[in-house]
Amino acid sequence: MANPEKVDPTHVEDAASLDKGQQYANLTALAQAAATDKSLSAFQAARVYWKATFWCLFMCMGALLWGYDSQVSGGLLSVPSFRRDFGYYDPSDSGSYVLAARWQSAFNSISSVGGMFGGLSLGYVSDKFGRRGAVALCCCVSIAGILIQFFTYPHKNAQLLIGKLVNGYALGMYVSGASSYCAEVSPLALRGVTTSSVNLWIDLGQFMSNGVIKGTGTWTSAYAYRLPFALQWIFPVLLLAGLPFAPESPWWLVRKGRTADARGVLARLSGGGAADVDLQLQQIQETIALEETYAANSTYGDCFRGVNLRRTMIACMVFVLQQAAGVVFVLGFSTYFFELAGFADSKAFDLGVGVTAIGVVGNLCTFYTVNHYGRRFIFNWTLFACTIILLIIGFLAIPENNQNAKWAIAALTLVYNFIYQTGIGPLGYVIFAEVSSAKLRSKTVGIGILVNSLCGMIMNIVDPYLVNPDEANLGGKVGFIFGGLAALGLVWAYFYIPETKNRTIDELDVMFERKVAPRQFGTYKMEDEDMIQEEVRKQ
């Protein structure tokens, strides 16, 4: 999206006095739009495009439910009344109630199964009904899924499973749709901030879930688990209430031939400068026309053909690398490590809540670093740091019954989460939204969320078998496994993760088509002739 003004770095107020026609007379529309896109800092863009920023953050609210659901599934397993109503009485286990292992695995993984189908279906739903229409469908499906869970009677485990599956479908669409929307509505200077806020909402959902379960977990009634389910209704209801006022993606409107509507949305988001809105609209039209010269169709198969295969691979691999870096292992077992360090169960849970709070702080730091240091730099260096921490955890776990080592492992889980949430976590959502072409974005990000859900489900199933004392009993030594995987992922990331900072959609299209090496994206000089040649090709 082009900026509404050619902004002087120090005096935004004087921008209107600049003669754009004189400055850009020798440039094509795409080059002119790119130049104005890059003229604003993030702070200036937030001032000018505050409406776009607000609506992007609003649309990301659905991602909170992704984080909430993922955390509440495991958290409820520790609630006695939940185990009583969905488990069985085991007199051999101190006379307590136990939830069968098969149901534990099912409850933990079924939302991911739904998320895979939800993410994959986003491409069709979003392209047919628009970004707002997709979110509206998500809200309705989510409300239905939550309703099923809330009214599940004791020992009707299959019904609870169906409710989580239905809600999981909506969650996959929520996250995919939020990323697509932010990438298409945000100005260039804010694109990294808004797309990374998807991960912030996920962190906030996890934090909220931990707090709710801590507050209700000791209740003896069914509302100890029903209330955590019911609170999820708040967010789809809020989204449905705000959707009529939210702007549709101007990119989707242009593709549907609704040029006047697209112009109206752009004017609304940018403050109404007519000449500049025309430039923004022309940029969208020219980029869409440019992509039409590369591929006339827009199907899921196109995501795996030609240069789009590389773009889809990057969009998927950022999430594979998140799991290779051991996020489920370290964060999923953080409370377990705190208990090993000698903390009482209640204190260990409090520290688990603290871990998610640290993640929120780390994600907020990304709002500054993502534009200051760039995507590739932060992703690769935080992946490297997580690799080192994983290997250190592995070495510390070698000595048996060493209390100092257990304390160190517990402390490293805090350090790990802060580093992860300042880099790999939020940057995954930034990169996978930016590397996809505008034409295939909703489909590419949907495939990325499918891979994310699949990898998360696999790790949630495998990790307990590696860590638990009654299985492989590796404990912290699992750090060697994930440290090795992360080291391999680091090699891949060095060669394939591109720098998308300060690159407009059309510039990324050109660089991918010209097969520019990903590690050269940040330094590649986009000459005026590049856009001219592409326009000639288009004609």
From TrEMBL:
Chemical reaction(s) catalysed: myo-inositol(out) + H(+)(out) = myo-inositol(in) + H(+)(in)
- Ranges for domain Major facilitator superfamily (MFS) profile come to 55-501
Question: Which superkingdom does the taxonomy of this entry point to?
Answer: Eukaryota
What is one cellular component GO term in this UniProt entry? Answer: membrane
What are the transmembrane regions?
48-68, 106-126, 133-151, 229-246, 314-337, 349-370, 377-398, 410-432, 444-462, 474-497
Q: Where in the cell is it found?
A: Membrane
User: Entry's Pfam families?
Assistant: Sugar_tr
Any single GO molecular-function term of the entry would be: carbohydrate:proton symporter activity
Report the InterPro entries cross-referenced here. Answer: MFS_dom, MFS_sugar_transport-like, MFS_Sugar_Transporters, MFS_trans_sf, Sugar/inositol_transpt
User: Which first-to-last residue range defines the signal peptide?
Assistant: none
Q: Which UniProt keywords apply?
A: Membrane, Transmembrane, Transmembrane helix, Transport
Homology family: Belongs to the major facilitator superfamily. Sugar transporter (TC 2.A.1.1) family.
Name of this chain's protein = General substrate transporter
